[in-house]
Design goal:
heterodimer; A: about 280 residues; alpha/beta; two-stranded antiparallel ribbon; about 20% strand; disordered N terminus; B: about 260 residues; alpha+beta; about 50% helix
């Protein structure tokens, strides 16, 4: 199936958040696509499903999940995938994405994006989960690089090597979160240029931009601030390597007026249009 | 360490801040481990805050957050969706506050309203098709959003006052059980108290009682004139509220629901 983002160059979108629902439903918001959190709409019915149907009538919609738990030692939850498949069949999403992480072990579900050790066992487990998910969903998955706050002592590869190998083994594509690269680079002391040099850019279909906060010792991926200057620079470097991707701003807390987010999206457009040189 | 053991240790760190479990994770840099525990607890706390706004107002911050923290300590989430996490809080509150049953009742009402809000859509029975229905074989059923909730306190009145930002009544126990019917009208959740006879009839409808059988029951109890009048009034009220769906066979093709 032709990927709609590959035909005309980069597309620019926003995440749908409750304070902006009315503007998306009633207005003419200048975005090429909208991303929603899949789980918010994996409900039997009612207003959430109605909102999604009406937004979908106006915009392409990307489904972005937080509960697939692809790195879980227990394997992927097939019932979850069937629910997601039903939603996807109804709205025909632009993409389905989730994170390189795990959330669930046994009867416990943390509902957080927990770090995967970058070793061969986790690679095999995650690859099997992605392959099964793609089979049950009938679609190629986009896997997002996480922000992380710890590193395992016995890691056998870097995160970018792990992601590249996942793509090779499963045929999955990537959702590259530029803020997450910056957050993890600062927290773990690696050079983000090494990260983007190691990413198979032919597999990148979507880009996330977001803000972060400074904790006592670490950067925290809070999505409650505007995109930081360092992240814009990194974004410029990333966009030198890709052409046709879907770029969007994620904002989940301290949500500003929609016009503020549209102005940030215009910054992303300008960087792509004017080709601002990274690392100047 | 294998992946299963690593993830079990991570779980133990998140749940109990178990320092040994944290050490067993064998981290190159453990400074950020606390970030994950903070995220875990903060997301569950936010979930309970969002799920029980009137309970929070009723208990006040200190009591609510203490009760929620206790719940998070004792009842880790297990469902695929965080939206299910509030489901177990009412029962836990009944244990935490055995002398204040209105607290658990208030929480139960808020949880049932939340469930109702996202219940499956259905073609509900409309007033304008009532005249077309073959009542001899009409099988009514309750819309998927409908829930019958019985309690022995005035928690519903407390909820209504709090949601209107009015001064709530003092908590009292009711001499007889009070049943609420909770449902969704278009996309708005509603509830109202119902009499014991309406409660019984709604339960029987849920079990597949036909409308003619329902009328016969009322005629037997109230006499012909009053029984038929009561059946008509109940049917008109339920239809207006969008509480009913019609099973197949009444009009149209088998298996088709009538209405929107």
């Amino acid at each position: 199936m032709a990927n709609p983002t590959t035909q005309f160059g980069p597309k620019f979108g926003l995440g749908l958040r409750k304070p902006h629902n009315a503007q998306f439903l009633e207005g003419d918001v200048p975005v090429d696509f909208v991303e929603v959190i899949s789980e918010n709409f994996m409900v039997p019915g009612g207003r959430p499903r109605d909102i999604l149907r009406r937004v979908r009538a106006k915009h392409p919609v990307a489904l972005h999940g937080v509960s697939m738990s692809l790195g879980s030692a227990d394997g992927v939850d097939q019932q979850y995938l069937l629910r997601l498949r039903a939603l996807a069949d109804e709205i025909e999403p632009l993409f389905i994405s989730d994170h390189l992480c795990w959330s669930r072990i046994g009867a416990f579900n943390s509902h957080d994006l927990l770090p995967v050790p970058y070793n061969e066992e986790a690679l095999a487990v995650t690859s099997a989960a992605i392959s099964l998910a793609q089979e049950l969903l009938g679609r190629t998955l986009l896997i997002e690089n996480p922000s992380s706050y710890v590193q395992f002592a016995r890691a056998e590869m870097t995160e970018w090597e792990f992601l590249a190998e996942l793509c090779r083994r499963t045929g999955c594509d990537l959702l590259l979160d530029v803020n997450n690269i910056h957050v993890s680079a600062v927290n773990h002391g690696f050079d983000p240029r090494d990260y983007i040099d190691g990413i198979p850019f032919g597999r990148v279909r979507q880009i996330h931009l977001a803000g972060h906060s400074k904790g006592e010792k670490l950067l925290i991926d809070t999505h409650d601030q505007p995109v930081a200057d360092q992240v814009w620079l990194l974004f410029a470097a990333v966009m030198e390597r890709v052409g046709a991707v879907a770029v969007m701003i994620e904002r989940d807390d301290n949500i500003p007026p929609l016009d503020d987010l549209l102005a940030e999206l215009d910054t992303a457009r300008a960087i792509v249009r004017e080709g601002i040189t990274a690392w100047a | 360490m294998g992946l299963t053991l690593l993830q079990q240790n991570f779980r133990d760190w998140l749940r109990h801040a178990d320092a040994d479990a944290g050490t067993r994770l064998d981290l190159a840099d453990a400074r950020g481990l606390a970030v994950y525990q903070n995220n875990y607890r903060a997301s569950l706390m936010a979930c309970l805050e969002d799920g029980f706004p009137q309970l929070l107002a009723w208990l006040g911050d200190a009591a609510f957050y203490a009760a929620a923290a206790h719940h998070i300590d004792e009842h880790p989430p297990s469902s695929w969706t965080l939206d299910d996490y509030p489901a177990g809080f009412p029962a836990d509150l009944r244990s935490q506050f055995p002398g204040d049953p209105e607290i658990a009742d208030l929480a139960e009402l808020e949880w049932r309203l939340a469930e109702c809000f996202v219940a499956a859509d259905a073609a509900v029975l409309e007033l304008e098709v009532l005249g077309e229905i073959d009542w001899e074989c009409a099988q009514l059923r309750l819309a998927p959003s409908v829930c019958l909730l019985t309690m022995r306190t005035n928690a519903a009145q407390i909820w209504s006052a709090l949601s209107a930002e009015a001064i709530p009544p003092a908590a009292t126990s009711t001499p007889e059980p009070v049943t609420l019917v909770i449902w969704r009208q278009d996309f708005v959740t509603c509830f109202r108290p119902i009499d014991p006879d309406e409660h019984q009839l709604l339960m029987k409808l849920q079990q597949g009682l036909g409308f003619t059988e329902m009328c016969a029951t009322l005629v037997e109890e109230l006499g012909e004139g009053d029984g038929v009048a009561r059946a008509g009034a109940l049917l008109a009220g339920w239809t207006s509220d969008q509480v009913l769906c019609l099973r197949a066979g009444a009009i149209g093709e088998p298996g088709r629901e009538i209405g929107r």
